[in-house]
Amino acid sequence: MSLIGGIRPPIAVLSALLLSLAGITALTFGKTENVLVPKAVLTSQQHFAEDGAVALRASLDESVTDLNRTSILFSEGKPVSADAVLDKTGSVYQKWSGTAVIEIRSGKLLAARGETVPLTVIDRTKLSGKDGLAPRLVRLKNGQTRLIALALLSWEGRPQQLLIASSNLKVPGMRLAEDRAIGVVDATGTILSSDGALDSERAQRELKTFATTAARKSRQNPISAKEPGAGGYAGVSGSLTGDASGDRRTVGGYASLAAAEPGESTVASDLGLSIVTQVGVTERASQLARPAFGLAAAGALLVIGALAIAVLLGTVQRPLIRLFLESRRLTRGDLARPVTVPRFGEAARIGGALERLRQQLHGESPEGAEGASGARRGRRLGTRALVAVSAVLLLTWSVPLTLLLNRPDSSVRIPTQVVMDQKARTETIGDRVRRALNEGHADLSAVAALIGDRTSADDMTAVLERTIEEHPRYASVYVVGGDGEVLARAGHEPHHSSGERPSDQPLKLSGHGGKKPLIRATAPLQGRAGAAVVGEFDIDFVNALLRRAGLGQVRVVDAKGRVIAGNTGYLAFQKMPGHLSPLVDGKQAQAKVQRGDDVRIAAAAPMTGGGVAKVLDWSVVSWQPASRLDIPAYTLQNRTVLVGLLGLTAAAACLGWLHIVVVRPLRALADQAEALADGDRRTVLFPRHHDEVGAVVRSLELIRQQLQGQQRGRDGARSLAGRN
Question: Span 649-672, mean pLDDT?
């Protein structure tokens, strides 16, 4: 018999799978496991660290890009004094701790602003070499670390100058709770900057331990550090567990600074920095498994599986094997004993046909031919129905597990730390959006400060095209004159009506009733009355800022509760879902667990802080179903569903296999056997399967040939008698 065909393999495999599944069920639900810190809390710390890494990387990259771009804009214009360079730069960008301009040849300090820039760490003789102008980390005498960025100022006929800016390594926009701390760590595990709850010696010790572990883990390849197909954050990230003190345990997360896309690199990502966070959580025993349930489910599967297998063995396998033996007996000429006819399905039809064929071979007149035909028409329980009975038995075990059992109700406990993290991360997202809009307006202000009343349209276009190329946040950038006409533009076609004067608001939202919101930033030009540089933000850029793992759905809404941007599909200016409205009061960040048919965590945070984006009066709202969290109640539900799906898969695979290799061929065989018994001697029977069904077909073919021989003998005898 074939190893993959026949009736025995699918039933045997089904038996083995059901036994294995019973063991898996008993082990999955039968092992008592007390979870002190739910995995959802640890995962939340990982995401919190990733948010910090994204914020710091974006801040550092933006600072370096802005400095380089500022130096290029100054170098392309008329020569100005070092003091003018720093004054204009400081008025547009308030991000650097200190700035300075020195003459490269002599090393003379020409101007300085803010804190003292460590000029001694700059080797002026190596500035022209490879990576001579690359940003570098410098340790100050007070123990703090600064990022030093360099850019050249070059004018024809003047000595070349070096524009220097120092930035601190404080993670921007992170909302830290009273017991949370955060640190910036270098590749050796040294904490370069820290903030938050570090008053106690224990907290400082824990952060140092976490920093050492984070630096070691961050040296891994981001691809090999994850499970295949995991996706998510482009860098290396994870969670950490520290020591316990009473019922409090320190947990944390870490994330290396990485570019937005895997395989890419930026100035900040090449520095080898990582973010590490820590927070104290309360340990609370939470039983993840119920041994009695696991044993009961495994026992029920054994009983139901035994019944299903018994049905298949008693009504399908044994009758078919008996038919195989009976057909071989007839081909050997043993015709004295009647054929044992099965009681159900196609096997009964084939058995009845074999008995009629036996009578024909034996020379007897077939008895009850009309009655047999009537019985065939009246017999309704076929082999398919018998297999369906087995399927129903298995479904009575799998379906309740998949759809009904171990479902948490609305009173399920959600860890407080997860709710707090949802709130803090929502605030961080809002700060990222606010900073991005402020940075966008600052870029336009820098361009506007260098466009004078004598700047030609071609020169303005060149500056605008460079701005579009360096900053993908804009869909289009253009210069509008005092009469409302566009003087120069770059990027997509602007949404500007002829004669429309520049807005007097630095940021303005429009596009109501359209498919996309239109966010415009306007920076007035100096020396051109009423003229301004206008930038239209690409709404997809704002949407990209909201895409963070573990936050669920995120929306930016205006003061009227209309959706402006989101991390998933949305309709522009549609009203925010009603269940989220109480959270948005425009005053302070809030988070709560909303209970009902579906338990969810929701948070909202107004975009507070300085800058021109404050006038927009926007808020960020996030929510996610609690069922996505890795907490004991939902972990138990997921395991239950998984076991039920395994049962469904085993039943579908094996019974489907049985239907293909046995049931369908058996139905065709029944038709052939009855046709042969009814007198069809011309149709040659070919076995298509090397199994029990094929063996019966071969026997029927031999019987057909024997009957043909008998018929030819009788015809010859009659012919001879006629001649005599």
Answer: 90
State residue 709 phi and psi, 5-degree precision.
-65, -40
CA dihedral 52, 56, 61, 64 (to 10 degrees): 170
Strand positions, DSSP E, 574-671: 590-594, 600-606, 619-625
For residue 646, which amino acid is it?
A: L
Contact call for residues 548 and 567 (beta carbons, < 8 A): yes
Virtual CA dihedral for 129, 130, 133, 134, nearest 10 degrees? -150
> What's the rounded mean pLDDT across residues 91-113?
88
Question: How far apart, in whole angstroms, are the C-alpha atoms of residue 289 and residue 32?
Answer: 5
Extract the tokens encoding 567.
């991390």
Residue 308 DSSP code: H
pLDDT tens figures, 254-275: 999 988 887 788 888 889 999 9
d(Cα 53, Cα 217) in Å, to the nearest integer?
A: 15
CA–CA gap between residue 175 and residue 48 (Å, rounded): 10
Beta-carbon contacts of residue 386 (< 8 Å; ≥ 6 apart): 311, 312, 315, 316, 344, 345
Tokens at 238, concatenated: 């994870």
What beta strand segments (E) does 65-126 contain? 98-103, 109-114
Rounded-to-integer distance, Cα 276 and Cα 189, Å: 10
Confidence of residue 125 (pLDDT cuts 50, 70, 90): confident
Tell me which residue of 533, 438, 524, 547 sits closest to 480, measured CA to CA.
533
Residue 371 banded pLDDT, cuts 50, 70, 90: very low
Place of tokens 């869909």: 475
How many CA atoms, within 13 angstroms, populate the side-chain half-sphere of residue 133?
15
Q: Does residue 420 register a pLDDT over 90?
A: yes
Long-range contacts of 396-400 (CB under 8 A, 24+ apart): 396/304, 397/297, 397/300, 397/301, 397/304, 397/305, 397/647, 398/644, 398/645, 398/647, 398/648, 398/651, 399/644, 399/648, 400/644
Please identify which residue in the block is written with the tokens 């990576």. 131
For 594, the 3-state DSSP assignment is strand
- 629-656 b/e with 16+ CB inside 10 Å = b? bbbbbbbbbebbbebbebbbebbeebbe
Q: For residue 607, which amino acid is it?
A: M
pLDDT at 4 over 60: no
Sign of the dihedral through C-alpha 292, 298, 300, 302: negative
Query: Mind listing the pLDDT tens digit for each residue in 305-320?
Result: 999 999 998 888 888 8
- Residues whose CB is less than 8 angstroms from the CB of residue 724 and which lie 6 or more positions away in sequence, other chains included: none
Structure tokens at 182: 């955060």
Residue-level pLDDT at 370: 44
What confidence score (pLDDT) does residue 185 get?
A: 93
* Pairing state between β 191-196 and 237-245: unpaired
Residue 512 above 80 pLDDT?
A: no
